[in-house]
């Protein structure tokens, strides 16, 4: 086990300090890198070391509940001991006060690369605690967020129901008010929740479920649609030490990410599960969306981290594996396969996707830290793409890592197949690619006032202007400007087309939008890398820029062109023709 | 279990009879469909029924050898009882005398869709028997091919070695001549073979290994490179009933296709494994390539079959699963997700890829049946693409089938995840995508006399001429002509560029070449479908044609353009920059 598959010091140092100026927010480079070292040592020793085992020895359910890999409890215990559950919480709340950017780059990416199934428990716990911190009462925070920030209790998010996957308005879990106590408004919850990651496990003392449910109206009915959805704290163990009325009805057995238990939970099989309202009734969705936005960025980061590791694995393999000779050469010993142009192309493509995705995610993570409306608007625009682009293209990168390994990549003796399976979750959860695309195109672009897009265009123009001054890169600066001009023209066409037809190719539009963002950020990194002492690292960036502009952007232009020739083909296809 | 995931009667009937004119070769439509019914009944009852089980209960090795799922022995026994091992052998050789096209479409595709791991044993056995029939003596044929044609013995192909995956010139297995007996020239073989599918199992009475090895030269050395590679018959059980010196050194544990045992075999741990030469010394590679070409078409078919099943599974799911409402509609009950445009797009894209791949493979399977040089030349040109395009794009289709299932697609309760894993093998074995691309571009195009390309262009021009006469489709006819004009221009540029640099983007070129072929064959099918009584089926073809020309060909043009702007970026990237 080595650190080689975890984001390198050189990469993190460049992105955070040379590119994103994290030192201006208070943490200097040495401190950040020393946190990175500590985190990566733990990640290698306790998380990476059980990566394969956690794929084979899946969580299981018996009468006492769900049991997960014992190594996970140990790993997360050490994670807690180092205070890492609280890394991004203010010191006043028992945290370490790291910026979102720093904790994303140094912690989240490290542990997601080493073992996303184990890291998942921590990620959910942090998101849960942050929601309670943001919207709960101080008593709720003390009782339910603090033990999570300390890493003693873990948290879950209970949204989906069997009949309502992505369609939260259709949830049927009901909450009946039963007065107030020192924790807040108390309710009894009855309903079934599906796809609950960490829904039960034996690694933490207690589990804090955050549950979306509809409060019963005075006549006993539930509000239609998403109105009336509220957020409730439902602990597995109640404050008096008794078990709450929450039952594990089953476990899902997954393609990947197997170490994270994934449960069907029944709330209220008997007297109803006790829950406390967070904030006011009817505020559940907006509250949850704060968490969802953070979760979406985290998914982009996790996807990038998994593909980064696969890239490094395939790079190592390509350097070590000798096979064949260059075309046209007869005789002599076999060469390392990194000498074959097709293998090099697959490595460069991976690098351009993976490190491009990391840059995109960290750019967004920095926007979370920035104050002010501008950053918030830009972040809202970028979030669906930050979730989706890495999920889609880092999966392609994972596929290339298998291909470089040849037959060995198809065996379970090498990690690249598991990394590919693990990453396949990311285009699905927290809103599928198609759902993100509709969010981007409909809500963030077509129905918006256009300010966030104008902001984005200004930042892109700034990069293009700077690059245009460099003779070697001026043509790329122009290509970037042209590309975004084309995006705007396509958008204008979609506006003319009107809803809902304009959304027919939303997924392809989002893909093109994402390519435009990654192209921009590659060029932006290039500008910074010129100040870094000349090294393989800077040359790597220059190669990625050229690759992305020469071999990716032309494809992306074809996507935009397909979107602009709006086709109702799929929409109007008779069902009998499929 | 239903037939719904196996290639439909309507599809097979159209492709074989309305499109490819199989009745002109002797088998009428009713006979073919009745064979299809028989095969599909067996496939559903005995192959599909253990599809999931064969993924979970993998082959294992103990002192007595490798044990595979008992259901496989039963299934393959019934397959033998129906005479299906011999389906494509002449009646004089104990076969059924079906054409290659018919057996590919009706048998191979059916069983590969139902259970590729089980079908793999039959596919290898047939290929093995065909090689012996083609190049072996009549005694060798009687002893080793006949029991395989009867399905009592199974066969393997032993090519790769640990140090020489795709680079057969580097094999080190050696064969020392030890005289002649009634079976032929006898040798003792010593060496290690890797990745041997079906290398051991307990479902057949005997196993016939066809082994590539180098005969020792008089001075005891082996010839360098691929010269001196010969083909040997090495049975597990010798004619006198004793065990040959062939040992299973280990099993590979794979990502998918788990039911097919995959072995490391040691030949000659003791006195040397007894083997008989097939044909003459030094002829091993050309002999094997006859089988490899058949195997490559079969891989295309298997990839298409797996994706066909996933497409049908996702179509059924999309019709049954209710969730969400059309954009802009508030309230009312949830609709089936097939109503959502993005889901319909994913279905249409799958259909266009999967049925396009089937058409490409069957077109090639028909060329195998045709006599004369023209068919052979065209087949040689198409073979790498017939292997690769379905492997690559049907895997994309499998991915879309998972996406349509949402979270359920990520669980092992639905077959789409296994279909995806199983299909991931196809871009790797029998020559990776990159190796096929070099074969296509270097050997079949740049170093050829251009006759096969001219032939292909004539056939494409014929389709374009016929389509140009139909006002609704004339623009697609023009687009097809333009596209292939562009392929020729790119080729001319690569010729100028010279080897080996011209091969830098061989993989992308092959992808574009494949898209051009599939576009052509879609349009060609459309011309035929106009004679079929109007139905959903014909409308499906028309939608696929439009989709392929409107949403796929523009992307493919961007690939050609990238190839034409030849870039040495990956080739010249310093190793330290990765």
Q: Please tell me how large the radius of gyration of chain A is.
A: 24 Å
Strand order of the largest sheet of chain A: 4-5-10-7-6
Largest interface: A-B, 101 and 100 residues
Give the overall pLDDT of chain A as a whole number.
96
The oligomerization state is homodimer
The named CATH superfamily of the largest domain in chain A: Butyryl-CoA Dehydrogenase, subunit A, domain 3
Shape of chain A: globular
Cα-to-Cα separation, first versus last residue of chain A: 49 Å
Helix content of chain A: 40-55%
Helical segment tally of chain A?
17
Q: Which structural class do the helices and strands of chain A define?
A: alpha+beta
- Please identify the top-level CATH class of the largest domain in chain A: Mainly Alpha
Q: Return the string of H and E elements of chain A.
A: HHHEEHHHHEEEEEEEEHHHHHHHHHH
Write the CATH fold name of the largest domain in chain A. Butyryl-CoA Dehydrogenase, subunit A, domain 3
The CATH architecture of the largest domain in chain A can be named as Up-down Bundle
Residue windows where pLDDT falls under 50 for at least 5 positions of chain A: none
The biggest sheet of chain A, with number of strands, parallel, antiparallel or mixed sense and barrel status, is: 5 strands, mixed, barrel
Portion of residues in beta strands of chain A equals 5-15%
Q: Would you count the extended β strands of chain A for me?
A: 10
- The figure for the number of domains of chain A is 4
């Amino acid at each position: 086990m080595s650190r080689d598959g975890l984001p390198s010091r050189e990469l993190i140092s460049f992105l955070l300090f040379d590119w994103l100026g994290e030192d201006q927010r208070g943490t200097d480079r040495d401190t950040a890198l020393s946190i990175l070292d500590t985190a990566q040592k733990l990640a290698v020793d306790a998380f990476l070391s059980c990566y394969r085992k956690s794929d084979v020895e899946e969580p299981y359910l018996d009468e006492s509940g769900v049991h997960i890999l014992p190594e996970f409890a140990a790993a997360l215990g050490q994670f807690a001991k180092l205070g890492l559950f609280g890394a991004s919480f203010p010191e006043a709340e028992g945290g370490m006060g790291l910026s979102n950017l720093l904790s994303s780059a140094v912690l989240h990416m490290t542990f997601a690369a080493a073992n996303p199934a184990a890291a998942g428990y921590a990620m959910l716990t942090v998101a849960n605690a942050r929601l309670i911190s943001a919207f709960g009462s101080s008593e709720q925070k003390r009782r339910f967020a603090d033990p999570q920030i300390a890493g003693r209790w873990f948290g879950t998010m209970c949204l989906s129901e069997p009949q309502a996957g992505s369609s939260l308005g259709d949830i049927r879990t009901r909450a009946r008010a039963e007065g107030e106590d020192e924790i807040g408004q108390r309710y009894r919850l009855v309903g079934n929740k599906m796809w609950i990651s960490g829904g039960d496990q034996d690694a933490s003392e207690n589990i804090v479920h955050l549950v979306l449910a509809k409060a019963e109206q005075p006549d006993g009915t539930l509000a239609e649609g998403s109105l009336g959805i509220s957020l409730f704290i439902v602990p597995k163990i109640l404050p008096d030490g008794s078990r709450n009325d929450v039952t594990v009805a089953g476990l899902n057995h997954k393609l990947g990410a197997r170490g994270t238990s994934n449960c069907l939970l029944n709330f209220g099989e008997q007297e109803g599960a006790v829950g406390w309202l967070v904030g006011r009734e009817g505020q559940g969705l907006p509250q949850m969306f704060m968490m969802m936005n953070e979760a979406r960025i985290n998914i982009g980061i996790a996807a990038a981290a998994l593909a980064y590791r696969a890239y490094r694995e395939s790079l190592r393999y390509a350097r070590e594996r000798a096979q064949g000779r260059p075309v046209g050469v007869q005789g002599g010993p076999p060469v390392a396969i990194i000498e074959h142009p097709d293998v090099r192309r697959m490595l460069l493509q991976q690098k351009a996707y993976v490190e491009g995705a990391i840059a995109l995610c960290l750019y967004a993570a920095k926007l979370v830290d920035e104050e002010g409306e501008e950053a918030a608007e830009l972040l809202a625009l970028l979030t669906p793409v930050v979730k989706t682009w890495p999920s889609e293209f880092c999966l392609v990168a994972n596929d290339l890592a298998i291909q470089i390994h040849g037959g060995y990549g198809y065996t379970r003796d090498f990690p690249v197949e598991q990394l590919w399976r693990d990453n396949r979750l990311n285009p699905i959860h927290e809103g599928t690619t198609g759902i993100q695309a509709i969010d981007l195109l409909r809500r963030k672009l077509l129905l918006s006032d256009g300010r966030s897009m104008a902001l984005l265009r200004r930042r892109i123009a700034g990069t293009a202007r700077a690059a245009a001054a460099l003779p070697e890169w001026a043509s790329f600066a122009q290509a970037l400007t042209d590309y975004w001009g084309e995006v705007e023209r396509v958008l204008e066409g979609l506006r003319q087309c009107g809803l809902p037809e304009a959304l027919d190719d939303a997924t392809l539009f989002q893909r093109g939008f994402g390519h435009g963002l990654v192209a921009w950020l590659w060029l932006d990194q290039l500008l910074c890398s010129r100040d870094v002492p000349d090294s393989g690292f800077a040359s790597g960036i220059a190669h990625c820029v050229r690759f992305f502009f020469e071999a990716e952007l032309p494809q992306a232009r074809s996507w935009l062109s397909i979107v602009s020739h709006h086709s109702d083909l799929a929409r109007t296809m008779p069902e009998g023709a499929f």
